[in-house]
Write a structure and sequence with these properties.
The complex is a heterodimer of chains A (about 400) and B (about 350). Chain A folds into two domains: about 230 residues, Peroxisomal Thiolase, Chain A, domain 1 (3-Layer(aba) Sandwich), CATH 3.40.47; about 150 residues, Peroxisomal Thiolase, Chain A, domain 1, CATH 3.40.47. Helix content of chain A is about 30%, strand content about 15%. Chain A is built from 13 helices and ten strands. In chain A, strands 3-2-4-5-1-6-10-9-7-8 form a ten-stranded mixed sheet, sandwiched between helices. In chain A, a hairpin with a 4-residue loop joins strand 9 and strand 10. In chain A, helix 10 packs across helix 11. Chain B has two domains: about 210 residues, 3-Layer(aba) Sandwich (Peroxisomal Thiolase, Chain A, domain 1); about 130 residues, 3-Layer(aba) Sandwich (Peroxisomal Thiolase, Chain A, domain 1). Helix content of chain B is about 35%, strand content about 20%. Chain B contains twelve helices and eleven strands. In chain B, helix 10 links the parallel strand 7 and strand 8. The longest helix of chain B has 16 residues. The model of chain B has no long low-confidence stretch (mean pLDDT about 95). Classes of the chains: A alpha/beta (about 400), B alpha/beta (about 350). Chains A and B meet through helix 5, helix 6, strand 3, helix 7 and helix 8 of A and helix 4, helix 5, helix 6, strand 3 and helix 7 of B.
């Protein structure tokens, strides 16, 4: 059985347009959550957002595709993270397009981020927009496949907020089974009126920047972004910097409710346990947990319950959603990048906006940035609507 | 992996296999709508009323299987658009009520994973659960996911399926994209129409699949592959390497199931592979029965598995007959000429 090593990564979020910028803000405890400038929604005056601080046009210029038609917010975020990841692993054009390179992406909103355009095209109002082929969830994947002439396996996941964790999981399996030599895995999500109104209808948007794991948490903050990892087996990774290894994974369903997790967190317990078993690790060997930690009443309670069930001694944990907001389908891969940064630099980032622990657990997330930590194994959780639970374990090589 | 049992909802009478007794139905509409069964015995009415069509069709095809086999360990669904009608309905409300106070029901159901999520919830299937939405190869990706999961040896039985519903908004958008024929066409001459575009269809096909063969396995799904934006020679090379990986050559294939959809712009791929490497095989088609949709290859798998189980397929599905007994089938389907999927099936 081969091993899936991470040899490159790229990320864009509200705390930076690349890996270095993201890390700098994580070190400095600087959140990207603020009043949105580019998204058009009446809720920009009501809720803060984790918006990437460039317009779509500016981002297209950075990506070198200015003037191209039909590019959605999701598309351009995906493109930038994809470019950085490929560059970071020194992939050539031929490597990217090779038949044994897989591209696995994820999104929930996809091109529906163009909410108003979709409304007009779908209802045949006015002349057709440039986005006719851009709305569908998998469009961002297909556009990158076309742009980079990729001939290998591609897919797009939509398991709501656990989507890109599943890209990483399937990519690792493809490498381990020998079916592919390389996998570019992750997800992308643009901020959209569609999701803002959806989460508002569910009444789980926080009027303040989200406060994960706080007793008085008031909901989640929506964010946007994208991240991709490059996975390669040993023989291709030999002369490259190895950020870590996808060591274990679990995928389960909570089978409790369409949009919330059970109080006994059975899906969470099962996905964490599966991940530990497949990694061949016991819970004491996990040095750090990058929690899903959305800041909703339901998630944070259930997640802490699930963690308490699976760990006798709970390792340091935090939620980087307090920096980026909840980037939905992209969150699994963005947080994978952050987990791998912790591992590479031996540093743990603090969780922001936390004051008082939830009384049933009395557990506090990391409160200070710290260095000289030997982070060998990281657990990263992602849970979504539809009962989808995914847990990943990244290990130092 | 081995198909044990399956159900299919399509624009034909497939739910109770009537199609094999009564033959096919001719469609002349611009959209071929699915013929849905009575769900009442399967789903409480109050639940049913709230379900999107794709969730309903998913439940209608999967729940009888989940009820019959109590050891299903996971659910993997391919659905490019999921409950698209709910998404659009929610989106329309956002715009029309100027982001006013909305009810979240449509939003929660709008995510593509609501089909797999509902099956997990109703069937209490707490294991592996995944949803692929990659347009015209979403079902092929679901098959790959299942093959890899079985390879790991942790699970023995899964439910997998492809589901797609027509929504008016997406139909409108696809019309604007030039996907569909401008003229009215009858299903019995769709494939010979010689004009641009195809017709829009929908449906669901759901399969119980096992890692191991058993006495009542009806067909084997041996392997799956895909390629995007190929030229016609790349397709031939891809098929050769796909077969080679499975220790086969083109002559080992006894029958082809091809995704001809009557679109004069893109049907040439199917002609070309027959001319180049598949001259001796029987050839079957299926979009003259159910039209085209993103996960239509799940219908082709259902049809091929029926052939293996000894059913006589409707005569309209066979466009070329060879004398060879059919043991190995290659399903080749592409969507708009962009995403091409290959599914290798075998008699069990």
């Amino acid at each position: 059985m081969k091993r899936a090593f991470i040899t490159g990564m790229g990320v864009i979020s509200s705390i930076g347009s690349n890996v270095d910028e993201n890390r700098k803000n994580l070190i400095n405890g600087k959140s990207g959550i603020a009043k949105a400038s580019f998204m058009k929604s009446r809720y920009v005056d009501v809720f803060p957002f984790g918006e990437v601080s460039f317009s779509t046009e500016e981002l297209m210029k950075i990506a070198g595709i200015e003037g191209e038609k039909g590019i959605t917010r999701t598309d351009i975020l995906a493109t930038l993270a994809f470019q950085e990841a490929c560059k970071s692993a020194n992939l050539s054009k031929d490597d990217i397009s090779a038949a044994d390179t897989a591209f696995l992406s994820a999104s929930t909103v996809g091109g529906m981020s163009m909410t108003d355009e979709l409304y007009r095209d779908g209802n045949k109002m006015g002349s057709p927009s440039d986005y006719l082929s851009s709305y569908i969830c998998g469009a961002h994947t297909l556009k990158l496949v076309k742009r980079y002439k990729m001939k290998g396996i591609s897919t797009t996941f939509n398991t709501a907020c656990s989507s890109s964790a599943n890209s990483i999981m399937l990519g690792a399996k493809l490498i381990k089974s020998g079916r592919v030599k390389r996998a570019i895995v992750g997800g992308a999500e643009g901020l959209a009126k569609f999701t803002v109104n959806g989460f508002n209808a569910l009444r789980i948007l926080s009027p303040f920047p989200c406060t994960p794991f706080d007793k008085d948490r008031s909901g989640l903050t929506l964010g946007e972004g994208a991240a991709y990892l490059i996975l390669e087996p040993e023989e291709l990774a030999a002369n490259k910097f190895i950020f870590g290894e996808v060591k274990g994974y679990g995928n389960t369903n909570d089978a409790f409710h369409p949009s919330s997790i059970s109080d006994d967190a059975s899906g969470i317990v099962a996905s964490i346990s599966q991940a530990l078993v497949s990694a061949g690790l016991n819970s004491e060997q996990i040095d750090f947990i990058n929690a899903h930690g959305t800041g909703t009443e339901n998630n944070d309670y259930s997640e802490l319950f699930g963690i308490s069930e699976t760990f006798q001694k709970i390792p340091p944990f935090q939620s980087t959603k307090s920096y980026t907001g909840h980037t939905l389908a992209a969150s699994g891969s963005i947080e994978a990048v952050f987990s791998l940064l912790s591992m590479k630099y031996g540093e743990l980032y603090k969780s922001l906006n936390f004051t008082n622990p939830i009384k049933e657990f009395n557990l506090s997330p990391i409160s200070e940035y710290s260095t000289d930590c030997n982070v060998k194994n990281v657990l990263s959780n992602s849970f979504g609507f539809g009962g989808n639970c995914s847990s990943l374990i990244f290990s130092k090589v | 992996m081995f198909i044990k049992k399956m159900y299919c909802i399509s624009p034909q009478n497939t739910y109770n296999n009537e199609i094999f007794e009564e033959g096919t139905e001719i469609h002349t509409e611009s959209q071929f709508w699915a013929k849905e069964p009575r769900y009442k015995s399967m789903v409480p009415l109050n639940l049913l009323r709230r379900m999107s069509k794709s969730v309903r069709m998913g439940v209608g095809t999967a729940m009888p299987l989940i009820n019959e086999f109590d050891d299903i360990e996971g659910v993997i669904i391919g659905s490019a658009n999921g409950s698209i009608k709910k998404s659009i309905s929610f989106l329309n409300q956002i715009v029309e009520y100027n982001e006013g106070t909305l009810t979240p029901t449509d939003f929660v159901q709008s995510t593509s994973n609501s089909i797999a999520g509902t099956l997990a919830l109703m069937g209490k299937i707490t294991g592996y659960n995944n949803t692929h939405v990659n347009n015209g190869i979403a079902f092929e990706s679901a098959l790959l996911d299942a093959l890899l999961l079985f390879d790991e040896g942790q699970v023995k039985r899964l439910i997998i399926g492809g589901v797609e519903e027509i929504s008016q908004a997406n139909y409108n958008i696809d019309v604007l994209r030039g996907m569909f024929k401008k003229e009215t066409v009858s299903s019995d001459n769709l494939l010979s129409s010689g004009t641009e575009g195809t017709v829009s269809g929908e449906g669901a096909a759901m399969f119980v699949v096992d890692a191991c063969k058993s006495n009542d396995s009806i067909a084997e799904i041996v392997d799956v592959d895909q390629i995007c934006f190929p030229d016609k020679n790349e397709i031939v090379d891809k098929i050769r390497s796909f077969l080679d990986r499975n220790n086969l050559v083109p002559d080992d294939i006894d029958a082809l199931f091809l995704g001809y959809n009557g679109d004069a712009r893109t049907d040439f791929y199917y002609d070309y592979i027959q001319k180049q490497i598949f001259q001796q095989q029987s050839v079957f088609v299926y979009k003259n029965l159910v039209a085209d949709f993103y996960t239509v290859s799940s219908f082709a798998v259902w049809l091929a598995a029926n052939l293996f189980s000894g059913k006589s397929l409707p005569e309209e599905t066979m466009i070329k007959k060879s004398g060879k007994k059919i043991n190995k089938i290659l399903i080749y389907n592409h969507y708009e000429g962009t995403q091409h999927g290959f599914i290798l099936m075998s008699a069990p």
